[in-house]
Amino acid sequence: MVAAMSDAAAPFAPGACPRLVVKIGSSLLVDREGAVRREWLAGLADDLAARHAAGQRLVIVSSGAIALGARRLALAKGGRASLEDAQAAAAVGQIALSQAWAELLGARGLAAAQMLVTLDDLEDRRRYLNASATLGRLLSLGAVPVINENDSVATAEIRFGDNDRLAARVGQAAGADGVVLLSDVDGLFTANPARDPCATLIERVEAVHAGIRAMAGADSGSGMGSGGMASKLQAAEIATRAGIALAITSGTRANPLAAFAADGRGTLFVANGRARARQGWLGGRLTARGRIRVDAGAVAALRAGKSLLPAGAVGVEGRFERGQVVDITGPDGAVVARGLAEYPAAEAALVAGRRSSELADLLGHAPRSALVHRDHLVLL
Ligand SMILES: Nc1ncnc2c1ncn2[C@@H]1O[C@H](COP(=O)(O)OP(=O)(O)O)[C@@H](O)[C@H]1O
Ligand SMILES: N[C@@H](CCC(=O)OP(=O)(O)O)C(=O)O
Questions:
Q1: Is the CATH number 2.30.130.10 carried by domain 278-379?
Q2: In this structure, are strands 290-294 and 313-318 parallel, antiparallel, or unpaired?
Q3: ipTM above 0.90, yes or no
Q4: Nearest C-alpha neighbor of 326 from the set 371, 293, 291
Q5: Pocket of ligand 2, candidates 66, 166, 183, 234: which has the most ligand atoms within 8 Å of its Cβ, to mutate?
Q6: pLDDT per residue over 268-294, tens digit each?
Q7: 23: CA distance to ligand 1 center in Å?
Q8: How remote is the CA of residue 298 from the centroid of ligand 2, in Å?
Q9: Less crowded by CB within 10 Å, the N or C end of the chain?
Q10: Would you state the CATH architecture of domain 10-272?
């Protein structure tokens, strides 16, 4: 599957990309009659199973709930005439969607794990960390998270509205290396190819600038999806800034991921350095709420890219909640790193200096895997 991989697809190969997010647009999943395109989905499930067998861990962001539910409820305009219609359609359609994924992945020995999230779940740091931890655990267990926006409870103001940006955010939360957006077009064209026959495919984008954005009209050619090309470009910006490569490629072929791997047809948005992106966010934008003092062994472990475990902490200062930013200082008092606390200050103080085996008894609940996880930490 990966032998003939072209350059555009190379960053998403199992060897180069241990964790991949695959987003599937409504127009691919749902036919014009409003039913799941099962045969096509079975082909995609084969692709996913092959990648999983090659060691790649997968997260699926699946659209289609509104389009599926609209048909079942006989709603006009694909269920998008009003927010209430979309919410009702999503509630009905999501069941059918989950069922299809569970069956098709299950038939290939893969456990589908449904997660429905709202914008707030990923914007709020604590909830983001929770979602991130759940994703991490599911992936380590070999399950395949299937994610969609929780459209039935999302309000007009507080929603993604499109799954492209959701996929990019999920990519961040899952610690993914790549995001592939499967759509009904081959990639980003110089203009909407549905309207302009002279439009040509752009194969590689180093940075999403105004000239690139101008190529995506606000319109969506499929009439079923919600974001159009504009939301895909926003997703590309979110992902690449976080050090995640993103591709837009056609999902219309029978085995879309294998086909992409074989000919690399699509648009690759090149990732920016992950360390720089994290450093910019953690080191620059936020001020620390507290401080965790650590011993020399912990400093060495952090410098080697490890998480901060409670055993290496010698003291905790300040008042912080789980998910808030803390400085990590070494024996000489210098700040060696900054990261997001996995525990609130009181619990951090309780577990400081303790071995992992003692934590559950001390806390009275299951312990987190670290005081500050390496995925949410930057060396200074
Ligand atoms: N510059 C462009 N290049 C490619 N597609 C474009 C462009 N501008 C607008 N589009 C439209 O965006 C559509 C894809 O978005 P959308 O229908 O939301 O897909 P999905 O359901 O896969 O999310 C294409 O079918 C195309 O009509
Ligand atoms: N959450 C919505 C999908 C919204 C959306 O982004 O659709 P699409 O543009 O087809 O990926 C649903 O499940 O219907």
A1: yes
A2: antiparallel
A3: yes
A4: 291
A5: 66
A6: 999 986 544 444 445 433 467 899 999
A7: 14
A8: 44
A9: C
A10: 3-Layer(aba) Sandwich (3.40)
